[in-house]
Amino acid sequence: MSNHGHLWLPFTQMAAFSFEERTFVRGEGCELIDARGRRLFDAISSVWTTIHGHGHPHIVEAIARQAAKLDHATALGAANPPAVALAERLGALTGLECAFFSGDGASAVEAALKIALQYWRNVGQPARTRFAHLTHAYHGDTAAAMSVSDIALFKERFAPLLFETLPYEALPETLERHDLAAVIVEPRVQAAAGMLIVPEDAYAPLRVARNRPLVIVDEIATGFGRTGPMFAFTALGLEPDLVCLGKGITGGTLALSATLAREYIYAAFLGEHREGRHLFHGHSYAANPIACAGALASLEVFDREHTLAHVAELDLALQPLMERVREHALVREVRRIGLMCAIELRAQEIDAGAAVSPAWRIADELYRRGQFTRPLGDAIQLVPPPAAARTELESFTYALLDALDAVLGSA
Ligand SMILES: Cc1ncc(COP(=O)(O)O)c(C=O)c1O
Description:
By secondary structure, this protein is an alpha/beta fold. The protein has two domains: 59-304, Type I PLP-dependent aspartate aminotransferase-like (Major domain) (Aspartate Aminotransferase, domain 2, 3-Layer(aba) Sandwich), CATH 3.40.640.10; 306-409, Aspartate Aminotransferase, domain 1. The protein is built from eleven helices and 16 strands. It has helices at residues 45-48, 57-69, 81-94, 105-122, 143-147, 152-155, 263-267, 289-304, 307-326, 358-368, 390-409, and strands at residues 24-28, 31-34, 39-42, 98-102, 130-133, 166-167, 180-185, 189-190, 196-197, 214-218, 242-245, 257-261, 331-337, 340-345, 371-372, 379-382. The radius of gyration is 22 Å and the shape is globular. The two termini are 35 Å apart.
């Protein structure tokens, strides 16, 4: 395979990319197996998607069964049983009764923003058109999701596509504005910004805001147990009007996302067809039956394997492991909530060598030690699948300490 192949990868400099070095051909449990037969612990859950490990038999079987029965049928004006069942199950889990399905996380965010806009129009407040978001926010790479994000690196090339937002720091005053449609927040941790931990009091103004503008919680990275509870917003006392889910929703097997809404939002879209109150938004593969069947099977595995209890055990196990990492001379700080960890390096003390950056040098060293991760700026991330074994977290930690020692020794 050449560097100038036909496949174009996201967030990847293809001129420096080696298909031989980085092609995964199999997944087994929490490991990925590359084309050279090397086994790697998937220390980032394939960017926060994998939950029960790769190729979990219960999910694989559910997907295969559904594919043989009904692979796809449009959701534009037609329902299917797995989508109906999943909407009900997510409603029971979150308290938000209605589910609108899309594909990727950014699509769920786009849908949430458009639902908010059309909601205010439908209830006779069309002036509510503006959005506010947290500092350092990240909600995805499509145009509206980028607009409500705050990481310059991801936005700066695309300014002509973006709209202006209102400052979150001005809350609670901003909440009083009659042009504010919604406030969107990541709960507790901002993953893409480097697992930044949001102080709990940042959410305080939103606890009283329900339906005044709408409050949108983006659980795409944090949902399905990664911070400890099934959903992070439940630990914050928030009662969001809309919740976005993605990534782990299918256990990390298929592209599916959901925008959950409270019943009063949904009700504002009901009326005679000619009134045009129904939601003017949707995608070809919305509510795909195979993906919904995979998601239902993943939720069954949560119950059968007591996944959240296992997450609590891993959370405890990580405490002393991350303490040891924190003490290393090349580590500036460790940020962690549940299974979402960022190890911020003293990057200026690490020679990047031939690597893209100091953190990439460490990530490359980790790859050689059977650990697959991807830096976030100057931080190494550890976001293991909730199904990971305690011993896998120990192996990652020892490999990281060894990689850091090797780099320190070579300085
Ligand atoms: C909080 C959050 N929202 C939205 C997204 C976008 O999801 P996707 O990459 O599936 O479009 C991400 C992706 O990392 C995310 O972390």
